[in-house]
Amino acid sequence: SATPLGVEQDRTKAAYWLEKAAEQGEDSHQFELGILYFEGNGVQCDHKKAEYWLEKSVLQGNPKFQYVFGLKILNRDFGYFSDTDKALNILEKAANKNYSDAQYELGIWYCDICESFGKSKNTKLGLKWLEDAANAGHLISQKKLGFLYAHGWPLSDCIHPFAIIDYIMNFKNWDSYIFLNPKASVKWLTKAAENGDTEAQHDLGLLYINGGLLKPDYGRRLSYEYWIHKFIAYITGVDVPKNIKTGIYWLTKAAEFSEYYQYKLGWYFAGDDDRAKGMPYNFPEDEKKAELWFIKAAESESRKSDKNLTYQYELARRYLWGWGIRKNFPSAKFWFEKCLEIRNDYIGALYYLGEIYADGLGIKNDPHKADKIFSTLNAKDTDFDSFYILFNLISRYADGNGVPNNQDKALHFIKLFSYWIDIYKEKPDLNRVLLKQFCEKIANRFKQGKGIPMDFEKAEFWLVKAKSI
Question: Is the dihedral of CA 245, 251, 254, 256 positive or negative?
Answer without folding.
Answer: negative
